Amino acid sequence: MGHREILAGAPATIEIVALFDVELILHDYPIKNNNTPQAATWIEHGPESVKYAYLVAPEEYVDPKTNATPDLTIYGLTGDTVRWRGLSFSGNINHAGALVAIKPNGILHVLQFKGPPRDVPGSYLGYNIDKGEPYDIKQFLDNRIDSSVIGTGTDNYIIVFALMEVDRRTGNIGKIGYYQWDPKVTCHA
Fold first, then answer.
1. pLDDT computed for residue 120 by the predictor
2. Is residue 111's pLDDT more than 50?
3. Fold of 3-188
């Protein structure tokens, strides 16, 4: 019996967060001509890519050896929802990371995606010039990408994401660049 079967009952919602080290990515892969999703710069997959990006999920739904790696193993049952979100290492304070699209890189065995990203209210800390205070919560639209577990096995994906710098003086989002990365998700029941 798999780990998820122990938790069986109503379908579960498994949150997967793609974490990005925006500062390091922008240093090693500066914004040049990657100002649209179609011109996204590749972040290579492999042992070195973990310093730039990795996936995390709640411990009750993930093989702990794979949490915080580019190759995540989840425990899910057919019909479970997997909700994806992008986030920077700083928690979107100095930098922000947002998912633009997740595309299959081959035949799908594990997840079926349910349409384009959907906007949800989000926030980040910015400088409030009127109050003269260094921290003020600013509102913006974050996004999520939903998918459903359709089976077990391993899928490869191409994640297209936007990276932004937040201007600490104004609290506005400054430079933006698009990147793509190819993590892998394995699903066991």
1. 62
2. yes
3. Immunoglobulin-like (2.60.40)
